[in-house]
Write a structure and sequence with these properties.
16 helices; 5 strands; 357 residues; alpha/beta
């Protein structure tokens, strides 16, 4: 092959790869998770000071627009449904490619779940891997999360999964994702409506411990070591929910282990009175996740803690944060409307339908 022929082949290959990646980004299934990640990639370089990682308690509990609007804290959630703890390290790595946050906030709920319960549930693994840009870090994440080597190629080249989504090629909102960058107007927040009252049992008096599964304990040790390598501060949190006794015992073990490593843990379940959380009104799914009423309370408690314990800059009014000002304005409108509907549901005892697994 001559140099000219080699050059033509290289140009063809580069063009093919570019088209393949671009089409893949567009046809990936649209929805709130894709919006959250394309929104993150669309953020200006080195403008985010706090990265939140974890599963579904993150994105409806903690409002980035509220943190910014009331305290000037620029925070962004890299959160997916049932996010397996072993994915967190790779999400933090991804964040550090374009951002220089001073603080990681990591939600702990999924550490009490055996990893094998979720490993074979493709949709939850893909929630992470299929929302990362193509990179070596993405390959590493796939290798860590997908044990069946024969299936990894469908994750490396996820167009195998989404090739039938050609209709998205004609949606302007998805065409805008051609670089996997599209601003999220609420900075990753998902406002949840509906009211599902729940009973709450106080396990705060339990001091016994139960070690999580060996794999989750190993994942935690690896994550702690990685955070130490980055030199970043980290805050671990346990979001409030109607937990069972077994989970409380595991959290006791996790909290001790994390604190021994030198990182604080903020367990919201031990501060319910301070938060003002009401299990009869502030959850939309009967004790697992807060609704818009609970979100406002949890965010307020978190922002107070962050302000008192960390020297985070107040970004309000700074150049480059105009989209955050817009997010705060939009949030106030949508939040007020959603709160009004929830309060009406409470008054009328119009409870949310229960989901039966």
């Amino acid at each position: 092959m001559t140099k000219k022929e080699a050059a033509k082949a290289a140009v063809f290959l580069a063009g093919f790869i570019f088209i393949l990646i671009t089409v893949t980004y567009i046809v990936r299934t649209n929805g709130d998770v894709k919006d959250r990640f394309t929104g993150f990639y669309a953020e200006k370089k080195d403008t985010i000071d706090v990265i939140l990682a974890g599963s579904s308690p993150v994105y409806p509990y903690y409002s980035a627009p509220k943190l910014y609007g009331e305290r000037g804290i620029a925070a962004y959630p890299l959160s997916t449904n049932n996010q397996r703890p072993k994915a967190i390290k790779y999400l933090l790595r991804e964040a550090l490619k374009t951002q220089d946050p001073s603080l990681f906030v990591i939600e702990l709920r999924m550490f009490t779940m055996p990893d094998e319960e979720w490993e074979d549930t493709m949709v939850f693994t893909r929630g992470v891997t299929d929302n990362l840009k193509y990179s070596l870090n993405r390959v590493d994440a796939i290798n860590a999360l997908v044990s069946d080597k024969s299936q990894r190629y469908t994750y490396y080249f996820d167009i195998f999964k989404y090739h039938s989504n050609w209709k998205t090629m004609f949606l302007p909102s998805q065409l805008a994702c051609w670089r996997y960058e599209k601003a999220d107007p609420l900075k990753g927040l998902q406002i949840k409506e509906g009211v599902g009252p729940a009973d709450w049992t106080d396990y705060s008096g339990l001091t016994q411990e139960k070690e999580p599964t060996a794999e989750q304990a190993e994942v935690l040790s690896d994550l702690l070591a990685y955070i130490g390598e980055t030199g970043k501060d980290a805050l671990f949190i346990v979001s409030p929910y109607a937990m069972e006794e077994d989970a409380r015992l595991q959290f006791n073990w996790l909290i001790r282990r994390i604190e021994e490593a030198g990182y604080p843990v903020l367990d919201f379940n031990l501060h319910l009175e301070e938060i003002g959380l009401d299990f009869s009104t502030d959850f939309y799914d009967y004790g697992s996740h807060v609704n818009v009423l609970g979100e406002a309370k949890c965010t307020a408690f978190l922002e107070t803690y962050l302000t008192e314990h960390y020297s985070l800059p107040d970004r309000r009014g700074q150049e480059g944060y105009e989209s955050w000002d817009e997010a705060w304005e939009l949030y106030q409108t949508r939040q007020a409307e959603a709160e009004e509907r929830c309060l009406r549901d409470i008054e009328e005892e119009n409870w949310a339908p229960e989901v039966i697994d």
